[in-house]
Amino acid sequence: MKRQHWLYLYLPQLALDHGMRVQPEWYTQPLAYIDESRQKILQRNAVAKAAGVQVGMAVATARALIPDITMVNYQQQAEQRIRTQLMAWLYRWIDPMYGTNDSDILVDIDSLFSLYHDVPSLVALLKKQCKKAGINVLVGYGYSPLVAKLLAFNGIELTTKDECRAALQDLTIAQTDLPEAVKKRLNGSGIKTLAQFMQLPGAEIGRRFTLEVLRYHRALHGEEALTQAVFQPAQQFDEKVELLAEVQQWQGLLFPLKRLLMQLSEFLYLRQQSSRQVLVNVIYREQTHPAIVVKAARPIWRYQDWLTLLNLQVMEKTLPAPALGIRLRCHQLEALSSESPELVANSQQQGDGLHDVVGRLQARLGDSAVWSPAATDDPRPEIAEYRAQPLAQRFAQLRRKRPLWLLPQAQAIDIEQWQFIQGPERLITGWWDAQSVAREYWQAKDPQHRRAWIYFEQGQWFLQGWFA
Prior knowledge:
- The chain has 3 domains: 6-220, Alpha-Beta Plaits; 238-362, 2-Layer Sandwich (Dna Ligase, domain 1); 400-466, no CATH class.
- It contains 16 helices and 19 strands.
- By secondary structure, the chain is an alpha+beta fold.
- The strands form 5 sheets. Strands 8, 9, 10, 11 and 12 form a 5-stranded antiparallel beta sheet that branches. Strands 15-19-18-17-16 form a 5-stranded antiparallel beta sheet, with no helix packed on it. A 4-stranded antiparallel beta sheet has the order 5-6-1-7.
- A hairpin with a 2-residue loop joins β18 (451-457) and β19.
- The longest helix is centred in the C-terminal third of the chain and has 20 residues, at 346-365.
- α14 (303-314) runs parallel beside α15.
- 34% of the residues lie in helices and 26% in strands.
- 27% of the residues are buried.
- The protein has helices at residues 14-22, 46-50, 59-65, 76-90, 113-116, 119-132, 145-153, 161-170, 180-188, 194-199, 202-208, 211-220, 254-270, 303-314, 346-365, 381-384; strands at 6-10, 31-35, 40-44, 70-73, 97-99, 105-108, 138-142, 237-247, 273-284, 292-300, 323-330, 333-335, 372-375, 385-388, 405-412, 419-429, 437-445, 451-457, 460-466.
- Pfam families: IMS.
- Keywords: DNA damage.
- Residues 23-151 form the UmuC domain.
- Belongs to the DNA polymerase type-Y family.
- InterPro entries: DNA/RNA_pol_sf (IPR043502), Rev_trsase/Diguanyl_cyclase (IPR043128), SulA_CellDiv_inhibitor (IPR050356), UmuC (IPR001126).
């Protein structure tokens, strides 16, 4: 079935909008994105515009107007990656979408009228969401993708077919995106407007002009075959931010990192997933360094939780070189718990609280520094206890009272300074593996009245551990 309703989201300064959103300090400083090979201005912010810098202006002229203007080399691949992020954001409201070769977004809205009823409400929604994302957008509506694109490019935002047809007829050949050589040839043939061009028979277009011009003519009449693939959101999170200027300290990376973590939070929430680990790569000009692994003790998805763990891990680190960008990855995903934090029992809330504390300690001290004591069935104290993953299991319910704190190695003591409380408990075991023990254990108090676990073996008293 022929699709007859299209929206074209023209994003005239997508790279610039994203760059300033990641580094807000550039809102108050002159900034421009340039075509390095042609030495032309492609995008500029409001500060540069107010000083007279225009799109298409020569770089040298812009520098003459603003000597201290910051210029960033435009990279279409980077801008299209930003476009993909925006499409992922819009995906909760609209589908299908297509990415265009111009880093813009094309939307097939025929199937969306059951949800949004009319074009104006859908356009209003898209504009609102782009504004939330900090992106400037012009939305063109048309009966074909090319018509919607031409109207958007020329800032003509209409919402009915009749208005669109009339506006299209009024456009000149100069207002199209045809190659300049084709525009010149059409004008030389007396064809000045799209109305004149569209009235020409296809056979005549094919005879007088190239196949490219004939395809353009057909597209204006709605006879256009889409070659782009329908957008599908990624199944794993892998995003990168390129900074507008080098950053010397970790503090300067926290704001763009927060933006990336907010994107991750949105990514996880929309898929009802969580994770225990993210990877942060700082991008340098010449050096490469291993990723910073940020781990959580329980599955989390909120960006505030990730940001807290990251802050604890990097708060005392220094950057080995000026940073040019950041990459954030999250590949190990788990299903999000169906339990709401507001509805779970107090015990569950306390458990989550313990996991949060453990996660922060690990981020600050390192994974190996945080562990939980666990017990085996071996009666020998030195072998019975081992270090388990934090909160991996509950403490074993022991039939005999044992201290929670055992010394790494028993210490010899002078028994004359100790007061016996309870005992003895005889322990004769270990004959099967050549590590046999024959001891008498007592609970006793030292001169500071601390409760301890001591034992007698081979004519000597030893301190084994302390009771809480």
